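Hypothesis: this fold can be encoded by more than one sequence.
Test: take the C-alpha cells below, design a sequence, compare later.
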C-alpha cells in the first residue's frame, strides 16, 4: 500500500481534502443528529409537511438535500441559512483529525498545493482553518453551493471548481475523502482518489469500489508527502 501511495503522490500537484473526516470531525461537540433535528424544526415552522423518515434523519446534509429536491427555493434557503449557522457553531468544538495538520503542512513543504472541497459551508471551513492556524496553507476552499444541494458531492462540480482555481490538470490532483460519494465525485471529475477509512467497515467498501489507495490513518499520507519532500520524519 505504501508503494502505491508513493507512486500516486509522486504524480500529483495538488491534494484536495474533504473536510468532515480527513481534516476534522465537524460535529464532535455539536452532534449531527441534533443539527438535523433543528433543520427539521425549521421546516415545521414554515408549515412544511415532514414525513416520518425525514423527521428522524440524523444527517443534516441529507435534510438539506431532500429539502432542495422538493423544489421550493424559499424553504431551501431557510434550511441552508440555518445549517450554515449551525456549522459555524460546530467548528468551534470540532475535533481535529490526527495527522491532518501534518498532511497539510507536509504537502506544502513538498511543493504540492492543498485545497479543501467540502459539502460543508465554505464559511465554516474557513473559520476552522483560521482558528487552527492553517488558513495560510490551504487555498482554495470550495464549500457547498448556496441553497443548491444538488451540486454537493458526489457531483463533480465543486471538485472541478477547485481544480480550475489551482490551474492543475484533473489527473494531477488527488482527492482524500472518507465516503463513497467523495470517490464518486472524484471519478466524475477525473481526479485520483485516496479513501480515508476512519471506520473499519469502510476499508472493505473502498476496496470493493476499487479506490486507488486506502488508508486508515492520515499519518500514512503525511509520511508519503514527507518522503516526497525528502525530509525523513516519520508518522505512526
Amino acid at each position: 500500500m505504501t508503494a502505491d501511495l508513493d507512486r500516486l503522490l509522486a504524480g500529483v500537484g495538488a491534494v484536495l481534502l474533504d473536510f468532515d473526516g480527513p481534516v476534522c470531525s465537524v460535529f464532535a461537540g455539536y452532534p449531527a443528529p441534533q443539527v438535523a433535528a433543528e433543520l427539521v424544526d425549521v421546516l415545521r415552522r414554515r408549515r412544511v409537511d415532514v414525513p416520518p423518515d425525514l423527521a428522524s434523519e440524523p444527517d443534516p446534509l441529507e435534510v438539506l438535500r431532500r429539502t432542495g429536491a422538493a423544489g421550493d427555493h424559499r424553504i431551501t434557503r431557510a434550511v441552508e441559512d440555518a445549517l450554515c449557522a449551525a456549522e459555524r457553531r460546530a467548528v468551534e468544538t470540532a475535533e481535529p483529525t490526527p495527522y491532518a495538520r501534518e498532511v497539510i503542512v507536509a504537502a506544502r513543504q513538498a511543493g504540492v498545493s492543498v485545497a479543501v472541497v467540502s459539502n460543508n459551508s465554505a464559511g465554516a471551513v474557513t473559520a476552522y482553518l483560521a482558528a487552527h492556524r492553517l488558513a495560510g496553507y490551504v487555498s482554495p476552499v470550495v464549500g457547498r453551493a448556496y441553497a443548491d444541494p444538488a451540486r454537493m458531492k458526489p457531483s463533480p462540480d465543486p471538485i472541478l471548481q477547485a481544480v480550475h482555481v489551482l490551474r492543475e490538470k484533473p489527473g494531477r490532483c488527488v482527492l482524500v475523502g472518507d465516503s463513497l460519494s467523495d470517490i464518486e465525485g472524484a471519478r466524475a471529475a477525473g481526479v485520483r482518489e485516496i479513501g480515508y477509512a476512519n471506520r473499519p467497515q469502510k476499508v472493505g467498501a473502498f476496496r470493493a469500489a476499487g479506490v486507488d489507495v486506502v488508508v486508515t490513518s492520515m499519518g500514512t499520507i503525511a509520511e508519503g508527502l514527507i518522503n516526497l519532500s525528502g525530509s525523513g520524519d516519520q508518522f505512526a
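Residues 73-90 form the longest helix (18 residues). DSSP finds eleven helices and eight strands in the chain.
Hypothesis status: open.
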